[in-house]
Amino acid sequence: MPMFYKPKPQAKQQKKVPHDVMKAAVKEVVEDGIGLRKTALKFDIDKMTLHRYVRKYKDEKSNTSTVYEPNYSVSQVFTKEEETLQAIYLKKASQLHHGLGTVNCRILAFEYAVRNKKTYPKKWDQNKIAGYDWFRGFMKRNRELSVRLPEATSIARSSAFNRTTVEEFNKNLEKILLRENFGPQDIWNIDETGVTTTHKPTKVIAERGVKQVGQATSQERGTLVTVCNSINAIGNFIPPFLVFPRVNIKEFMYVGAPPGTVGVGHQKHSGWMTKENFVQFLNHFIKHVKCSLEHKVLLLMDNHEFHISLESLELAKHNGIILLTFPPHCSHKLQPLDVSVYFPFQNAYNKAAQQWMIHHPGTPMTVYNVGEVIGKAFPQAFTPQNIVSGFRVTGIHPFDKNIFTDDDFLRASVTDRPNPTLPVEEPAPKQSIFQGGSSGYVEFQPGTSNNGSLNISRPNFTTDMLVEVTAEKSQTIVSPEQIAPYPKAGPRKCGRKGGRKPKRSLILTDTPIKNKLEEEFRRRTSKVTAQIKKPRSNLFSRQIKPVQHSTKEKVCCIDDAYDEEILELNS
């Protein structure tokens, strides 16, 4: 028998009667004495269905807890309110980037049923987990939930995007907009993305039932080419800037690329952006934007180390470019290129690369063909609609410092911890959870329930919970959050020294910040030049000592010392 009954097409579909309507119809028949057929027509209820509930009411007239719902809803393990609490818990856990899978959800449901003394199938006790049939029914009754494949998000991104860092960035942006009165055509964003000669295959049509379907790619691991782009809030862009893993750049490498594309090489044969290449990109940017001290522009970028150098700051300052950096690890929410442009660009690049492989069978794609593939993918992603949308949803233009809600910052609450340098407040009283039984206090150990069943392991489940047992609270419902609290990071370690200083959103071209950065650069340079690098010791090489000559002068010539030692060995 199937778990969910599927009626035949020709079968008559009966309407679901609400609880209050059925109750009013039954009382009208029993108490007012109106006929059964007439009442059924009045409330649009099946006559036999109404007859069954009237008979049920008469049999249970002494009992005031008559249920006017079908048997399938009465026999559920959890009530509608209890399942709503579970749905709210699952949604919030997903927003915290610590969502539960199907197995953990069923374990939580079993603990939820045990702690609330629900009637459930005996098989749940055998496996210490709720059945899969219950999970399917739960998902069908809660249509707002679905099983999704999450996107891997680092802890740094989850914790760095918080209200404090975003408000600091918005404060700097608002300061610049009020001071310079920039229009949308003057607000630019730059960022890099990487493309390789080995694309990610897209879906293809193949025979049903085949376990493995392959698609030809150039090689196992491709060669990286960095693509640096710039867009503005009005929907325009400048030609891309490419960094090839080559020392010498040839003209045929631009064949098929977007018009005006510029490429540079990397001395170490890698496609990474460097400080020297970024200076060349700024010259490329100034050439197309035509900015000057009379016509200033705002340039938004991340605070990577190759974006910040003395030469790039001087070049930007003398050409009317105001540099504003995003907070670290926040570009996935604040940077327009990352939000709405680069994802469709990568998809279009993979499709174009796959098409290139189809048209060139047996020929591997190299860095000399990357420009042609980029030329086909670039117009599909860098559309005015995508570009303008990126500036709008990030709140940059039109400027909206309240574009992000509390739900957007919810995932950062996992790592919200008190500062160890500040005085510690008194801890809050332990959480009191009802557990059926005699009155008294029972210690609840994390990871196990009182009946010995395993509980869901959570990162913050490190303190014992106190369970208050009283007869007066027999109707209290234990919430899922009390069984498996939301994740919370432990206290910070105090006394930590060294390491990198935390970065912030800065206006790099402002005079005080620019002078401070220049002073920091000079200090680092002086340290490097002052250090004397000692040669590494080699066990296989003999140590040559300076030879003492008859004139009693120490000579540190390696060749003379080596000759003297050879003569002594030969004699």
Protein described:
Helix 14 (336-359) packs across helix 15 (370-381) and helix 14 packs antiparallel against helix 16. The N and C termini lie far apart (103 Å). The protein is α/β, with parallel strands linked by helices and 571 residues long. The radius of gyration is 35 Å and the shape is elongated. Among the domains are: 19-74, no CATH class; 80-141, no CATH class; 163-201 and 274-393, Ribonuclease H-like superfamily/Ribonuclease H (Nucleotidyltransferase, domain 5), CATH 3.30.420.10; 432-483, no CATH class; 535-571, no CATH class. The chain has 19 helices and eleven strands. The strands form three sheets. The chain has a six-stranded mixed sheet with strand order 4-3-2-1-5-6, with helices on both faces. The longest helix is centred in the middle third of the chain and has 24 residues, at 336-359. Helix content is 38%, strand content 9%.
